[in-house]
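Hi R.,

Here are the chain sequences for the assembly we discussed:
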Amino acid sequence: MESPISKSVVFAYLSGQATPIEIQSVDDWLKKPGSYEVFCFMLLEWEREHAQFTPDREKAIANFWERVESPSELTATSYGSVPAKAQQGITRIARRLLTIAACMTLLVAAGWLFSDKLLYKTIHTAYGEISRQVLPDGSEVTLNANSSLRFPRLGFGKDTREVWLSGEAEFSVVHTDTDQRFIVKTPKDFQVEVLGTEFSVFTRTRGTKVVLNSGKIRIDYRKEGKPAQLTMRPGDLLKMDESGDIRMETTKTPEEHSAWKERRFVFDGTPVSEICQLLEENFGVIVRPSNGEIGERSITGNFETQTHEELLDILREVFALETRKQKDTLMLYQKQEPTIFN
Amino acid sequence: MKESLMPESFPNPENQDNSVRKNLPDPTGRKDDEELFLRKMFRISPKHGMDILFRTYYTPLCSHAVRFVYSRQIAEDLVSEVFFQFFRTQAYQSVSTSYISYLFRSVRNEAFTYLKREFGKTTVFDDMSENTHPSSLDQPDMEVHFNHLFHKISETVAELPPQCRKVFLMSRFENKKYNEIAAELHISSKTVEVHVSKALSYLRQHLKSEWLSILLLLVL
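And here is the predicted structure of the full complex:
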């Protein structure tokens, strides 16, 4: 693509030595479609010629691969085969978990003999908490805030591996030698069945959502009272609303649906009303738009937030809103000019 | 594992390019070749592709990031994070633009998120200006504002009194400890601390307007 702006002008612009006219012309050019691509190659060349410092690239690249292969990274298994080192790490964590589980079993047995508590372990995450678990079979689960997962404490049975989820979680299921099926059951008439793959499940009052990252999974649900089945392929996004209607879409960005793992929120034209639901589900904070117009405003972007306050700040800042507390609910109002109250 | 990632048969593209590039009249076309090569590599083996991508773009991206964050440590961490996400999310398969423009955009966004957290906490957002209506701006404006932001940052740093600037750069850019700087400049640690906090609050004040315009652009 021919650039209407010469490289030397762009370089002067980047170096802060361009004339006001040149600055304006580059700014205008950058607003034209396609110009950003060309600009980036010039920016790259400029940065190469005007490097601010020389980072230790070899060290950085070594760290990078170490991180990619590290078992402590949530996503270590997403790149095909699990490296030997990672597998060792997983068994080590699994062993530690089993030890803890065994100790707890003894304690439980000594005290109160509830068979369900003895046989099943249930993990709950608090509001704002994200927890990663390795199941007895080595599969990994990352549990989002305000969710619970129940699974057999003493390992899975021979035929199937069953877990019960309420809330939101991402699963990275390992394939067993015996082709044992892995089944995620939800409080609704809805379950996900797989052999070995990576996917995330969202199941809360407002609906259910399954996103498949790799492999193939089968969904069992009830349609007009009868059992029905569906097969999902990578990139498929399945949604079930409150009434039980199922819709299948494809997503180019399946990873965005598990951005919560890194405490990120990815919004793509997401309305304020939906962000309010997210705040309630993940942080237990009840936020409501004061009118429908505010609820319909949408936001796009990738935000990293640790607390509900940070997320609220984003809403307040970008839409010029303010929150007013009414009993347990935070109401979102358009920020008023102070003169109105006088 | 690391050795196997970069076998002898794959020449280091950056070193090779640097010598060649200067003699070429059309750098844009040349760099498209570089991208084409990277895409091919990713198709053959994502790991090799990633290794070469990292080697090709790490240094210029760090240089760009540091213009925003003014700390080599943070710049390097930030760029590494961008590469990590790029690999983890397999963006190399889905990116429809050139890799470098995707990476520049990611670095800029990460840098902005960082700056926002670092400098934006206090009063910065309190006075949302009424005259810039969000809907009148769109994505390309964002890039223009980013360009102006890093100029503004470098201008602001340059405006600092010499000693204050020196201390600020040693502390932030070179990541030196307060007592190290104090020893080197023969001043007290307390003075170092004062200089750094003065520089930061000066930056906070002067970046106010640049930020607001970018923040407003986050709304579509």
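Residues 84-110 of chain A form the longest helix (27 residues). Residues 7-49 of chain A form one domain.

Let me know if anything looks off.

Best,
T.
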